[in-house]
Design a protein that fits this description.
Layout lengths: L9 H4 L3 H9 L10 H4 L5 H8 L3 H11 L1
Length: 67
């Protein structure tokens, strides 16, 4: 079972449709951003959560439930 952490790249998360739903639920803007495809290989979910004030602990809990 894969464990996602604050260092997990957005590009890895979006490979799974279940993760996309969770990212949308938590309003992670990278899912909708037109520039995201350029940065997804370097953006870490922890950094994104910090920038946008997203509860990282809850987001990772939800992501790790589905992995």
């Amino acid at each position: 079972m894969k464990k996602y952490t604050s260092k997990t790249k957005i590009s890895e998360l979006i490979k799974d449709e279940k993760n996309l739903k969770i990212l949308k639920k938590h309003r992670v803007p990278c899912v909708f951003c037109p520039f995201a495809p350029i940065e997804m290989n370097v953006l870490e979910i922890g950094r994104v959560a910090k920038i946008y004030g997203i509860d990282l602990k809850k987001l990772l809990e939800d992501l790790n439930k589905t992995s």
